Amino acid sequence: MPLTRRRAARITAAVLTVAAIGLSAAGCGSMSGKETIRFAFSKREAIPFMNDVVATYNKSQNKVEVIMDTSGVDVTSASFVRGNPPDIALANHNMEVSRFVERCTLTDLADTSAAQRINPDLTPLVDQYGVCEGRTSALPYSVMSASVIYNKQIFADHQITVPQTWSDLLAAADKLKAAGVTPFYGTFAGTDAWTIGQGWFDYSAGGMVDMKEFFETLHEEGVNVGPHSRQSFQKDFLEPMNRMLQLTDNYVNADAASRTYADGNLAMAQGKAAMLLQGPWAFSEIAKTAPNLELGTFPLPMTEDPGDLRVRVNMDLAAWIPERGHHHQAARDFLEYLYQPEVIDAYNASQLGFTPTTDAKQNDDPRVAGMKPYYDAGQMYQGPSVLVHKSIPVFNYAQAMVLGADPQATLATIDADWARLAFRQA
Amino acid sequence: MSTPTAGQTQAVRQRRRHVEPLYWWFLVPSLILFTLAITIPGLVGIFFSFTDSIGVGDWRFIGLTNYVALFSDPAVLQSYLFTFGFAIATVLVVNVVSFMLAVGLTSRIRLKTPLRTVFVIPMVISGIIIAYVFQFLFNNSLPGLGEALGIKVLSTSMLSNPDLAWVALVIVTAWQAIPGTLLIYIAGLLAVPGDVYEAADIDGATKPQQLLRITLPLVFGYVVINMILGLKNFLGAYDIIKGLTDGGPGTSTRSISMTIVGGFNGGDYAYQMANATIFFIITIVISLAQLRLTRGRSL
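Predict the joint structure of the above. Result:
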């Protein structure tokens, strides 16, 4: 028996040794003598573009080999939990990243030359996703601006000009409806609740409520958020939600409740509706069916004052370098390369995004031209649906309202969720 | 007296210790994997449920705060109500349908083998694919059919009706789960000896009587197995719901697993670990209760 046990121990040791060798080999990187850095990038539509950027960079010098990791947001998040984050990332800047920022797990980028060129208008927006005191934890790379997408031909056919006020919008929708044209294409199907969140919910609220102030107050109020706090969803969002419901109840396709995001793009491409509340990412999808369709964009007017018009933006990509990465200098060199005007401008032109640098040459695609004046003037907000903590299913709540739930009660639920979250994180 | 006893005990002990080493090779790899991949992470998760960890960075102990917040969270309560209602309904549907199918498929009918193959096919398709296919059917084909036939109930998608979406989930989950249950029932029915039916025939028992009084009691062990396995599976419902409704419309079909996973990705790690701990305890209690209630009647 002791003999067997000793043999078992020996075999176990052998297995462990082999495993250890395997692990350390994986950790050391390539054998070519180049320093290897892992670059997380998971924006699906842009992977081919970024592949070329990485290949060019790898060929341009012989010190660093950049390896692109496209395994996705959830995997990147999990890698932080395991203490093995990527060396550098270009990632959607959202509440999920905010926890890495707030707990100071990202390095300070303030002294990079890229940081000096960032448009100062954007700093407060980036800071909405949390700050680590004294650090510039993330730099915006691509700003996506979203608003109403409209079919220029249909508008021209019915002598409709781009609406600037809420009553203009209703008049336009009435006119289209009377002519038998579906004014808005709704995609409210179960799995695509995000389309309601990013479009209907965000544009309505963002067009009426000052989002920056609103969320600052909500963070201050914390556990007190509710009917008696200074601001709350049930107080400030009720009016915008009622207007949103006025649109979704009267001016969308009859089968909106079972239509998906893909259905919406196809319907727009086929001219089945005049307007779609989507971001620029939908353009490439629509172009698959109708490459020459003339489309434009305008911010959803929610008030009677054209001065209130604002576009929804999101930090579609931001660059950051985790503390726990092993190759900070190499990662920073690559970051500077990514921010070279010819790289960053080309990237944003390819994705119809806005370049967040002061020296940017913005793209002049007619499809996003309608939003450019607002972006340039700083009249923009980040959508409430992405500023709410991810554990609050705000997309689902928005969907519930559109499908008939009472807005007052639903907004009160969001308040209660907010307060409960503040309670356990206090 | 004492000497032989001691000697015997030792002999027994020695015999017991002499385990065929091969058996260890069967056990050890799974034991290592199970410990590393399930037991340790599980304990770590329970530990973190008493902290304010978000999965990264610093954390501190906050005692039972997560649990207090959990019990006052209507969203969590709703997910439990939904999941249990869904699991019980699905278990009933799956077992009734597959038992009837099994009886049919073990009787002397033609085309028995091809029919069995047809019924078992859903088993080999992954849940998420089934969900996407059925999503299309529910959102497009069924409303189209309803419109063509003038049936008003069908003409709007069941998936976008908060009161009916769960029915669609039960149907699709049952469709996928029936083959597995069916195979177990077929095995059970084939094990029932034919002579008891002959005896019943001679005694003048009708076919329904035979089914209720002979077949059902004789395969009751299989019913128990199917109920326990089914309930366990359906309580963990995730992929089919993800693909069909993603918890919607609104939050009407958010299962417990979806809430837990959502919190994990959304930086709500410790809180959902508390949720997972509670869920774990409830599942254990249910399994023990089921085993106890059916003890003596199983195989």
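Chain A has two domains: 31-143+315-369, 145-313+371-425.
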